[in-house]
């Protein structure tokens, strides 16, 4: 068991671990740096496709990093085969041998190792007790429920006495009730065994309830590493805030010392960020206080009330913004309400720079292109003071500028990029891989055909996986000349 009197001791370390797939050049895991302590319960949390399984497979030895190192107890194991690593894996699909009874399923690996019968008997009995299925030796796999089968899969991994147990969405195939029970059992098992658990899930609640440490991942990158409380209370960016628990996220600006404006109101906050800084404010639904309209910092109209068991989920429209609130109060749909926030109910994140930047190609006739598509810009406006006559561009002092000597940086803001379902339209196209609602608009991540991730703001709701064309109007572009 992890013990407060012993100093933490790293068992697994990932150093600059990157995995790029050769066939499509896709980077599934990008420069991971991570330390896992002996005895810890660590969870990799993130949406489907973010690189969780790939990372686990590299730790297990089924896959190798393209670059970087994996250390076990301080030693590089990058070249060690899976069966030489003190690691066992439990997968989402139990993968039991259906033609064997429970005993033979669990004993399979030990028999391969030619362990003597008496010892195998003892070990099988012991692990069956650990997963609370004592006496199940003779049963066939088919007579077990999904939850029982998964416990057998865990027993089969534990019988090898691994130092590290890897669990890849092990409860994903179970129904909600069984999943909740198994979460508690797994956590208890971890505390009893004292071995290291590396757990993979896309379910934030599961991660928050079970883990000592959570690694939040998105798009092959680590977003934040921390204790569940820290990740919930102090999310590092809008992705983490949105993914962990429900939250309202608003674009805003610092208006004074610990004063911030968002959602149409000015609020006191606890974060000392310089005046004028663009920020994202995170407000958890349970932190919004509903008052009479005259007492609210902002007011709005109730548009929805849904009973959720212990509280109501209330949606309020305030001007162009929308706020989701959890409260035991029950205002009526259509009612005007006031909303207040305590300073500690607001979490300020410095807005990341989401400007899209690329270089334009300059053609012989000085027209501009990107991706082989035309940018509708006048070169004489881009190169200040220049004139274009008879196909020759001259600067203000009459000097000729050749197209190949021009390097033009282009930048455009997320709000100025327009999405269309016609992928032939616009400068480039891509797939929507992430979206976050920011109170009055959605912020999308679009992975372009060239593999770049662009941020696009749009007030309309698109779906994950939609293929979109990205229209970038030349009049919204900022052009700068590289020297
Ligand atoms: P997760 O477990 O978080 O859902 P994975 O680690 O399985 O994600 O996959 C991460 C990304 O890498 C996905 O986009 C997936 O399509 C891609 N990927 C995984 N394995 C391969 C492979 N062998 N070849 C090419 N791409 C792969
Ligand atoms: Mg996976």
Summarize the structure.
With 483 residues, this protein is of the alpha+beta class. It folds into three domains: 10-233, Rossmann fold (3-Layer(aba) Sandwich), CATH 3.40.50; 245-350, Beta Barrel (OB fold (Dihydrolipoamide Acetyltransferase, E2P)); 356-481, Nucleic acid-binding proteins (OB fold (Dihydrolipoamide Acetyltransferase, E2P), Beta Barrel), CATH 2.40.50.
Describe the fold and architecture.
- The chain contains nine helices and 32 strands.
- It has 483 residues and is of the alpha+beta class.
- It folds into three domains: 10-233, Rossmann fold (3-Layer(aba) Sandwich); 245-350, Beta Barrel (OB fold (Dihydrolipoamide Acetyltransferase, E2P)), CATH 2.40.50; 356-481, Nucleic acid-binding proteins (OB fold (Dihydrolipoamide Acetyltransferase, E2P), Beta Barrel).
- The longest helix is centred in the middle third of the chain and has 18 residues, at 176-193.
- The radius of gyration is 28 Å and the shape is globular.
- The structure holds adenosine-5'-diphosphate and magnesium ion.
- The site of magnesium ion (MG) has 2 residues, from helix 1.
Please name the defining characteristics of this protein.
483 residues, alpha+beta, Rossmann fold, 3 domains, 6-stranded mixed beta sheet, 5-stranded antiparallel beta sheet, binds adenosine-5'-diphosphate, binds magnesium ion
- The CATH superfamily of the largest domain appears as P-loop containing nucleotide triphosphate hydrolases
Radius of gyration: 28 Å
For the record, the count of structural domains works out to: 3
CATH C-level category of the largest domain? Alpha Beta
Derived from helix and strand composition plus strand pairing, the structural class reads alpha+beta
**What is the typical, i.e. mean, pLDDT?**
92
Main beta sheet strand tally, sense and closure: 6 strands, mixed
Number of helices: 9
What ligands can be seen in this structure? adenosine-5'-diphosphate, magnesium ion
Question: How many strands appear in the DSSP assignment?
Answer: 32
Helix content: 10-25%
- The shape is globular
- As laid out across the biggest beta sheet, the strand order is 6-7-8-3-9-10
CATH-derived architecture of the largest domain: 3-Layer(aba) Sandwich
Tell me the distance between the termini.
Answer: 61 Å
Strand content: 35-45%
């Amino acid at each position: 068991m992890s013990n407060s009197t012993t100093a933490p001791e790293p068992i697994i370390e990932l150093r600059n671990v990157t995995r790029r797939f050769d066939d499509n050049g896709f980077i599934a895991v990008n420069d991971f740096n991570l330390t896992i302590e002996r005895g810890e319960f660590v969870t990799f949390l993130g949406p489907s496709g973010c690189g969780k399984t790939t990372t686990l497979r590299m730790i297990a030895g089924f896959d190798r990093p393209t670059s970087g190192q994996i250390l076990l107890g301080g030693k590089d194991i990058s070249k060690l085969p899976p069966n030489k690593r003190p690691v066992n894996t439990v997968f989402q699909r139990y993968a039991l041998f259906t033609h064997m009874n429970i005993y033979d399923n669990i004993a399979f690996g030990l028999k391969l190792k030619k362990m003597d019968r008496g010892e195998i008997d003892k070990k099988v009995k012991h692990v069956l007790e650990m997963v609370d299925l004592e006496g199940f030796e003779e049963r066939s796999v088919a007579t077990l429920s999904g939850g029982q089968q998964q416990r057998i899969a865990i027993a089969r991994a534990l019988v090898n006495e691994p130092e590290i147990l890897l669990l890849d969405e092990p409860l994903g195939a179970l129904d909600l009730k069984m999943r909740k029970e198994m979460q508690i059992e797994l956590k208890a098992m971890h505390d009893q065994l004292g071995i290291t658990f590396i757990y993979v899930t896309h379910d934030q609640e599961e991660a928050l309830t079970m883990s000592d440490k959570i690694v939040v991942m998105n798009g092959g990158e680590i977003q934040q590493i921390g204790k569940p409380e820290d990740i919930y209370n102090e999310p590092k960016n809008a992705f983490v805030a949105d993914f962990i628990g429900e939250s309202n996220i608003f674009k805003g600006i610092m208006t004074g010392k610990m004063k911030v404006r968002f959602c149409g109101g000015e609020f006191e906050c606890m974060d000392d960020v310089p005046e004028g800084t663009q920020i994202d404010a995170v407000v958890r639904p349970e932190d919004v206080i509903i008052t009479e309209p005259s007492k609210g910092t902002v007011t709005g109209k109730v548009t929805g009330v849904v009973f959720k068991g212990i509280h109501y989920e209330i949606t309020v429209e305030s001007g162009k913004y929308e706020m989701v609130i959890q409260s035991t109060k029950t205002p009526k749909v259509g009612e005007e309400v006031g909303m207040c926030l305590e300073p500690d109910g607001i979490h300020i994140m410095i807005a990341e720079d989401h400007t899209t930047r690329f270089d334009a190609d300059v053609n012989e006739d000085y027209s501009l292109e990107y991706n082989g598509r035309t940018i509708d810009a006048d070169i004489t406006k881009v190169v200040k003071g220049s004139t274009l006559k008879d196909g020759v561009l001259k600067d203000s002092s009459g000097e000729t500028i050749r197209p190949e000597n021009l390097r033009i940086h282009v930048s455009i803001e997320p709000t100025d990029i327009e999405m269309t379902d016609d992928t032939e339209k616009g400068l480039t196209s891509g797939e929507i891989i992430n979206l976050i609602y920011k109170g009055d608009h959605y912020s999308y991540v679009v992975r372009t055909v060239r593999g770049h991730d662009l941020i696009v703001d749009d007030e309309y709701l698109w779906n994950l996986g939609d293929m979109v064309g990205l229209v970038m109007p030349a009049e919204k572009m900022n052009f700068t000349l590289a020297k």
